[in-house]
Write a structure and sequence with these properties.
Chain A has 184 residues and is mainly alpha-helical. Chain A is 69% helix and 0% strand. Chain A is elongated, with a radius of gyration of 17 Å. Chain B has 9 helices and 7 strands, in the order ααααααβααββββββα. With 244 residues, chain B is of the alpha+beta class. In chain B, helix 1 packs across helix 2 and helix 2 packs across helix 3. About 8% of the residues of chain B have low confidence. Chain B starts with a helix and ends with a helix. Classes of the chains: A mainly alpha (184), B alpha+beta (244). At the A-B interface, helix 1, helix 2, helix 4, helix 5 and helix 6 of A face helix 1, helix 3 and helix 4 of B.
């Protein structure tokens, strides 16, 4: 596929926002997320010739971004893993009405508390509506693993959102002060 | 299929209905018609997923990110030969064929530059980032080269030195370091490779340039002051000649 000016502008317009959000969900801070997104587009410009099928551009971009992230992580300690509490308290059932109270920052910040191997498929599922097969391709893991991580990741996300919403109900001002994690 | 298995599978079902025809979900979807409790669970699952997808989709993106990404288009120079991979492959095949046919001639003393060598360098330049550093002028590039113990006193024409430069990169070719500079000639992007003399065998010692074509790229190669130069771009040979 030739990435000419029109193609490039369109690909930026369509995909840069979900790519940035995916990058943020991996890196946990805006600077690294922007840099990951930029590096992905630089690779599109310099290596876009490898992409023969135009319909695959979305998967190619997400796959490239994820590989760039993995490459960075191998050489840096700026992406620490989150520790997850083994104890999961009994929580109220997470309903659609509760989901109505979840804004983008709260959703992302809560996702960042989940281990990356659950978080990455979860964010791809929600962000860009990637099919489980595409998620498997992006993350280079088997389809069965994607399904398992999606199922478990959704459960973890909802539990943690319930906790956050409960806290905000008792301490209303706490939510306003919530900011995405700054990990760098 | 148990209800638990159906829930596990349906967790991966997207809210926009795109997975309706995917056979992976067929049995679980069919079960919804027979199991009202499962159907209630699925309706709620989809309702929550719809809202959470909306939440994630509203996470703020820096307002200047798009402009920065679009600006990268004018900074990152895509090599012209990379834009035509099919033609490049065809051209490379022709070059190889010509190489086989013309090999006996190429081995004779004083023979012309083998056209496969520029093609090999151009292919090498396609790999990795196009430049290691960005610079607007030749003196900036010289400074960068000196810092890397790479030849910087180059016997280029004043006209060539005065052009608008874009960046520089050091490549490894045939076990030696090759400098590649990117610059604009009359509005067209060209790459100038600087090699040790003798790395492109077949060039006359008197500095006379040899012109060749690789795909839709014209090249000029010459030796001067102990270095060999290869200038390549989608420009006509007459334009290249004016800057040698």
């Amino acid at each position: 596929m030739n990435v000419d000016d029109l193609d490039y502008e369109q690909i930026v317009a369509v995909h840069h926002e979900p790519l940035y959000r995916f990058a943020f969900s991996l890196a946990g801070n805006p600077d690294d997320a922007a840099e990951l997104t930029q590096e992905t587009y630089v690779r599109l410009l310099t290596k876009g010739g490898q992409l023969r099928d135009r319909s695959k551009v979305k998967t190619w971009l997400f796959t490239t971004l994820y590989r760039v992230f993995l490459g960075w992580r191998r050489h840096a300690t700026r992406f620490p893993h989150f520790e997850i509490s083994a104890v999961e308290p009994e929580l109220p059932h997470f309903t659609p009405e509760m989901a109505d109270d979840v804004d983008g920052v709260l959703a992302m910040d809560t996702a960042l508390q989940i281990e990356e191997h659950f978080r990455a498929p979860l964010v791809l599922f929600y962000l860009q509506g990637l099919a489980y097969k595409e998620i498997a391709e992006v993350l280079d893991i088997p389809i069965g693993t994607v399904m398992s991580r999606l199922s478990r990741g959704k459960e973890l996300l909802r539990k943690r959102l319930s906790v956050r919403l409960q806290k905000s109900a008792t301490q209303p001002e706490a939510v306003d002060e919530d900011q995405p994690n700054q990990m760098s | 299929m148990t209800r638990t298995t159906a829930k596990f599978i349906l967790s991966a079902y997207r809210v926009d209905g795109q997975d309706q025809s995917d056979p992976q979900f067929a049995e679980a979807l069919d079960m919804l018609r027979r199991d009202p409790e499962l159907a209630r669970w699925f309706a709620e699952e989809q309702a929550v997923d719809t809202r959470l997808a909306r939440s994630f989709g509203s996470f703020p993106v820096p307002p200047d990110l798009k402009a920065q990404l679009l600006a990268a288009r004018s900074v990152i120079v895509v090599p012209v030969w990379q834009r035509r991979p099919v033609w490049l492959a065809a051209a490379a095949a022709i070059v190889v064929l010509l190489g086989i046919v013309l090999l006996p001639r190429a081995l004779r003393p004083g023979s012309a530059l083998a056209s496969s060598q520029p093609a090999e360098l151009l292919r090498l330049a396609e790999q990795g980032p196009h430049v290691n550093m960005m610079a607007a002028s030749f003196p900036e590039i010289q400074q960068w080269l000196r810092a890397r113990q790479q030849p910087a006193e180059l016997a280029l024409s004043e006209r060539m030195k005065g052009q608008r430069y874009e960046g520089c990169r050091i490549l490894e070719w045939q076990g030696r370091r090759v400098t590649m500079m990117c610059l604009g000639l009359e509005g067209k992007h060209v790459d100038l490779f600087v090699l040790d003399a003798g790395q492109l065998p077949g060039l006359p010692a008197d500095g006379q340039p040899q012109f060749a074509r690789v795909g839709d790229v014209n090249t000029a190669a010459w030796t001067r002051g102990g270095q060999t130069y290869l200038l390549a771009g989608q420009v006509d040979p007459q334009t290249l000649k004016r800057y040698l």
